[in-house]
Structures are given as C-alpha cells and as structure tokens.
Amino acid sequence: MDNVQIEPAARKARRLPADLGILMVLVGVALVFEIMGWIFQGQSFLMNPQRLTIMILQVSVVGIIAIGVTQVIITGGIDLSSGSVVAMTAMVAMSFAQAAGYDRAVYPSLTGLPVLVPLAIGLGLGLLAGIVNGQLIARTGIPPFIATLGMMVTARGFAKWYTKGQPISFPTDGFAAIGNGALPVFIFLGVAVIFHILLKYTRYGKFTYAIGANAQAARVSGINVQRHLVKVYALAGLLSGLAGVVTAARAETAQAGMGMMYELDAIAAAVIGGTSLSGGRGKIFGTVIGTLILGLMMSGFTFLRVDAYYQEIVKGVIIVAAVVADTYRQKGRGKAGI
Amino acid sequence: MISERTQAAIDRFKSKADGPLLEIEGIRKEFPGVVALDDVRLSLRRGTVHALMGENGAGKSTLMKIIAGIYTPERGTIRLRGDEVTLSGPLDALERGIAMIHQELALMPYMTVAENIWIRREPLNRLGLVDHAAMARRTRDLFARLNIAIDPLTEVRFLTVAQRQMVEIAKAVSYDSDVLIMDEPTSALTETEVAHLFAIIRDLKSRGIGIVYITHKMNELFEIADEFSVFRDGRYVGTHASNEVTRDDIIRMMVGRDITDMFPKEPADISDTILSVDGLSLDGVFHDISFDLRKGEILGLAGLVGSGRSNVAEALFGVTPATSGRIRIDGQAVRIASPADAMKHGMAFLTEDRKETGCFLPLSILENMQLAMLQDQNVRLGFVEQRAVNRQCAEMRETLRVKTPSMDERIENLSGGNQQKVLIARWLLTRPRILILDEPTRGIDVGAKAEIHRLISRLAGQGVAVIMISSELPEVLGMSDRIMVMHEGHMTGILDRAEADQVKIMELAAR
Ligand SMILES: Nc1ncnc2c1ncn2[C@@H]1O[C@H](COP(=O)(O)OP(=O)(O)OP(=O)(O)O)[C@@H](O)[C@H]1O
Ligand SMILES: [Mg+2]
C-alpha cells in the first residue's frame, strides 16, 4: 500500500459505479418518455400510478425468469428453454388446479385440489427441466446453447401434446389468487432479494462467479464444477416453473403458446443490466433494472401509440446498443482492445 | 558538388542512424486510483539489450505496453529512429517495427502453432484462401533459423508453458521488427531453454535489433544485457551499463535498501511420513514415481521442462489423476480423483500457469484470494463468514505485500508479480498440511521472493510438508531438504540437501 499513489479526485471522476450507471439509464428512458408524453400526448407518462403498476406486472414474469437466467449467464452458460418451460409448467400446473366439479377438466376426478398441489407440481416440473438441462451440460459436456435449445423445443412440444393443443381453464380461486393484484410483483421482488443474497453472500454465489470467470481454475481450486452447474440450471428451471404458475394464475387459463420468446426477453434484461455473456460478471440488481427498462419501453411505446411492429424493431436495437455500451465500459477500464 | 541542403539532410540522416533507435521521455500513465508511470524515460540503442528492472508493480509492463501501442500515455513523447510518433494501436506499432512478447502468454489454444504465428499475415494461394502448406513451410524455416523443435501443426493447447513461450518468441521475431520487447520471457523456462533463448537474442543483436528485456533474475542481467534502467514506484531511477555495477547496487536502486536474495531454509523438525507415493504412473507421461514426504520437509522437484515434474504434481492433486500407483496419506490409502478430493486431505496446489488455471480475471482480488478457503471452516449454513475471511485475506495481503489500492480492484489490473502473490495467498489461506508449489516465485521481484521463501520455510517449521517445483536451481538448492530429479517422465534420483549441487542435478536431469 505504502508505495501506491492514490488520487481520490481522479478516481471518483473516472469510475462510476456500474449500479449507478444502469440506474441512470432507467431514469433516462423514463424521462425521454415523460418529455415525449408532454409533447405528443399532452400528458404525463410517469404521473400515472396505474400505468406503472401494470407495467411492472407485465414484466414480473419475465423478471422472475431473468433472475434465474442471470446466474446461468454468470457461469458462462445460457438458458434458452425458460419460455417453453413456462408454457409446460403453466399447462401441467393448471391441469391440477381446476375448480371443483368442472366436468371438462383434464383430470375430472382431480378437481378442487388445494393450491399447494398445482404449485408444487409446477415448481417441481420446472426444477426437473432445469436438472435435465444441468445434467446434460455437466455430464455430456455439450454446450449449454444446444442442451437448452433441445429443452426449449421439447418442453414446448410437451405443452402442446399435453392437451393436444387445447387450452386449460377454470382454476380454483386459491390458484387464481397467486396472480391476483400486485402479488406477481411481490413474488418477482422477493425472488430478486433471495437471489441477490444467494449470489452475494453465499458460497453458492462465489462458486457461480468463479466458474464463469475461469472454469479450469475453479476446478483446481476445489470446486466440483459439474455438480455446481447442475444446481445453477436446476434453480433456473425452478424459477421458470414459478413463472409458469404465476402466468397461468394471472391469466386464469393456460395455453401451449404461453411464454413465447420470454427466454429472449429474460436474456435481454440480464444483458441490459450489465451481465456479461462471457461469464463471471453480473448482478441481480442490474437484471431487475434491466427488466424494468424493458417494461418501461413497452409501456412507453403503447402510451405513445407507437405501432407494435416498430416496438419490436426498437427493442432489438436497444438490446444491441446495451451490449455495445457494455463492451465500451469494459474497454474504458484500461483494457486494450485486442 | 552537393548542395548545403542535401548535406544537411545527409547529416540528419546519419545522426539518426547513429542516434538511439527508440527514445521516450516524460511519459505519464494513470489508471483509476493509480499513477502507474510518472515522468519516465528510456533510450534504446541499436544492437543492444536494454534490461528493465524494478519491483513488482513498478510499471515496467505498463511502459512496454505504451511502446507497443497498447496503452496511450497521458503525457510524454516517443521517438522512433529520431522521429516523434504517436502510436494508434498495437497494429500500428507492429507496422512501425515494434513487436512485443507479453508477460502473460496470449496464444490461441485451439489453433495450430503455425496459425498462431502467422495470424493476420497468412500466406494465400491463388484462390485467396489460406495456403496451409506454405504457412507450415514458413514456420519450419523460422524454427530452423531459431533452432526450435516444435511441430508447426500441433495445436497450441498441447504445448507446455515453455514451448508456448518459445512460440511467442518465434512469433515476435517473425515480424522482423527493429524493436523487440520481451516481458519476463524466461519466467517459465529452465536453464537449457534460457541458454537457447540467449543464443537467439545474441543473433538478433548482431543484426542490429534493439531489445528491451524485463526480468527479475539478476544473473540474466549480467549475462545478456548491455545496459539497464531501474524503475521504482512508477518513476525512473537511472540507467547504467551492466558491467559497471554489482547486484547489490541494483537491488539498492530497485528497493531503496539492502536485501538478501535467497532465504535458506530454517532447520525444521522433520517427523512422520505424511504422504507416501508408490509406483505412480500416468500412461505416456510419467512412470513409476515413488517417494515419501515427511512433515516439515521441503522436497524439491527438479528436471527440465517436459520432464513430467508438473504432471506428477497435477496427478497428486487430482487435476489429471494417475492411471496406476498408490498414494497414501497418514498411512491410509486414498483415492484422489479431483482437486476437491485432494483438498479434503489437506492438500493445496499452486499451479504453474497463472492465466489458465490460476486467476479469475474478471473478479476482484478478494474474490480471487478467498476462493479456495471457502470450505467448511469459513462457511456457515452456506453463508460465507465474510468478516473472518476478510481479516485473514487482509493479513495475507500485508504479509505478501500485494501492491494494490484496494482489495476490490480486479486482479486483471494487477502487475504479474502481484497476481502471483494473490494466488500464493489463496493457497496459504487454506491452511494446508501438504503444500505443492509449481514455480512459486515466478515473476516475483527479489525482495518479495526472499519474503516468500521465508514464509515457506516458516510453514515447514510448523510441520507443513512441501513439494516445490522450480526451474531455478539456486532456489531448489537453497530451500529443499531433499531434491527429486526427473528426466523424461522417470525419476532419476533423489539427492539429500548435503550432497546436492548444480552439477549433480544437471547430470540427473539430462542423463
Ligand atoms: N489496466 C490496469 N488498470 C489499473 N491498474 C493497472 C493496470 N495495469 C497496471 N496497473 C497498475 O499499474 C502499476 C504498474 O503495473 P505493471 O504491470 O506495469 O508492473 P510491473 O513493473 O510490470 O510489475 P511485475 O514485475 O509484477 O510484472 C501496478 O500498480 C498495477 O496495479
Ligand atoms: Mg509486469
């Protein structure tokens, strides 16, 4: 220490905390919509609590998935299966959640079950899908992209096969309550807090970052890399299952087409939030903000009555811009670009 | 008759030809929180080797990266062959005739040796596609000129660290540059390869190439360098001809005080056998290795690069488990199938390759240091006992004098020697009973080296059994109670401290 010259002024000026940076992006996006709102609509965008609640509600499900995906990406992997697992778990959970006496139920003899049953089945199925992902990756060594791509197709197929394409409806009040009001938002934030603690303060978290930073060094440092990866993918699957249950409960129906492209929104939220696709870097806080940025954009475009087609185009551009910005942030730290 | 103007031009040209090849002045470079260089200068003449000396973190690599166009300095001028230049990037520097061999090797593991060397300069055939035959031929020519025996078509990941180093050297030479920068090129080489490298350097020198050579090894300075410059804490201390100073002078310039280089092992109570290895083999790599290791003992492992020293260590630690043979710890036969198994038996293993199997580059110093110690004693219900861990890490940082503004700094931003210290700390923090060290003082400056030797010696005094691999014979001789020598995967002898000397070891190592 004694030999190092520290210049506090230079230091503060140069190094903006990454958390603050992403928060400023969120504020920036909000302000842009606010200003555009006054110009084009003659009203405030932000001063409308109802709109903001709906906005967060809409992205909670993607947010829940994004949290699981974030930790997968931190290990240097990817999970493409989450959207399909949402559909699969929504279908299966819903089939055990149908109201008593509903005669066109999937299992007419199993209606009116307590809410714990479909909840446990949904979570369990998600967990199982995650374990299969993890085992495939850990045991066969195939790239996560391929393993989870397989699961993505399989789970979607399963969801369609399950009722031969028929939607499943009429849940018990207890099940529907899971999606009631702002509960999904609290579930999302609760999960975020749990995983923030998990990644930051536990050995599980330290190992997750280490594997993404350098898997070989992680192994030599005594980490059972394969076993740990199974855990990481399993938890991601569990969260997809939770997202599936919440989706079904909120819609009070389940269809095989649910959760379409959610995996990409989730990955986008993580990446916008500063998680590095090359592994070893990322935070739940960033992902939550990234999710909110996505939500804000969707809700803002709707508010400005921007055509849905344009929305997709702009969304794509913004995702790429976020990654480019992140790359520059990396270089700004004094690393050479070679 | 030549006009006055022409005459002036000729004079200018002449003075340029005689003047320094590379001259830099007033360089300043800051990183967030650190001034790495301040008002630094250097002058390199044609056909000479100019050594850079200084403690870990003195700014040597940073200065070289500026010359190689990787960093842009905040202030200062660079004059190349008399003309002031601004380098826009590494490619620009290469085109102007400045090539650099980095401290951390940077070859692409899944590409062949030839592809690595000629990257971006691949010979093309008539269809505009890469002409692999021509590329291999060129590589063979280059290797023949440099006397290197590596097959151009092997993938780099199959090469040893020393072989990779030779490939890096060949690659840098292949640019036919005027200025060649070598950042600790010998830290992974044994004496035979060092001699080989020096032969190459002498040849380059005779062709008028100027070489900047960074090293922590004093004897190399006297052997190969014509002059040297010393840096301390990012500042320029002075330049001298290497034949007009003594090693003590240099150390004083580097650290500002006197220091003993090698710390001979303190006598320790060598007691019961803790590790006993019997007929250990890994097919095609090493064969029939047997030895006993006792508490408090330091067993040196010597041999040329490629003799299987590191492979034996990797097998003991379960990185690449042996295919046959027996390992017993405290008299009990054990199965070590992974590093996690080895750690359960109280083993620790500092690997040779900091980049591949050591550092978690995107993570902080703290995260890097604490990782291996997150076993049961520092974790409760899955939660890391961060306060206790932080305290131990902070102590280790003091002991090893890791030079950094903060433990939250990314390890990537540390100087090479300081990274090495963090990795040593990582393993010492696990409180091992059996400590395996592969090139522990690689890239570490003289002062810190003595400190690390003393630390190892003190651990042995406390009953830790140590296996130490080192390419530096004086280090092996100074530290070890016994020395096991290997040659091409076979054990050729075990020497006691009293009977061991350089000649005996070299005889056993070369056979
Ligand atoms: N990219 C970076 N970001 C922040 N600090 C850096 C960066 N690169 C180097 N430094 C700091 O600059 C100082 C000089 O580092 P440098 O790598 O030049 O040392 P060195 O003399 O080569 O040491 P060594 O002998 O250990 O290789 C160190 O304090 C280091 O931590
Ligand atoms: Mg260096």
From TrEMBL, chain A:
- This protein's GO CC annotations: plasma membrane
Has UniProt tagged this entry with the keyword Cell membrane?
Answer: yes
Report the locations given in the UniProt record: Cell membrane
Q: Does the keyword Chloroplast apply?
A: no
Q: Which Pfam families does the UniProt record give?
A: BPD_transp_2 (PF02653)
Keyword terms, alphabetized = Cell inner membrane, Cell membrane, Membrane, Transmembrane, Transmembrane helix, Transport
User: Which InterPro entries does this chain map to?
Assistant: ABC_transp_permease
What Gene Ontology terms describe what this protein does at the molecular function level? Answer: transmembrane transporter activity
Q: Which domain of life is it from?
A: Bacteria
Q: Where are the transmembrane segments?
A: 20-40, 52-74, 80-101, 113-132, 144-163, 175-199, 232-251, 284-303
UniProt membrane topology term: Multi-pass membrane protein
Tell me what this protein is called. Monosaccharide ABC transporter membrane protein (CUT2 family)
UniProtKB/TrEMBL annotation, chain B:
Membrane topology per the record?
Peripheral membrane protein
Q: What one GO molecular function would you report for this record?
A: ATP binding
Pfam families linked to this entry:
ABC_tran
Which keywords fit this entry according to its UniProt record?
ATP-binding, Cell inner membrane, Cell membrane, Membrane, Nucleotide-binding, Repeat, Sugar transport, Translocase, Transport
Free-text function comment from the UniProt entry: Part of an ABC transporter complex involved in carbohydrate import. Could be involved in ribose, galactose and/or methyl galactoside import. Responsible for energy coupling to the transport system.
- Which family does the UniProt entry place this protein in? Belongs to the ABC transporter superfamily.
Instruction: Write the protein's name.
Output: Ribose/galactose/methyl galactoside import ATP-binding protein
- Origin organism is Paracoccus lutimaris
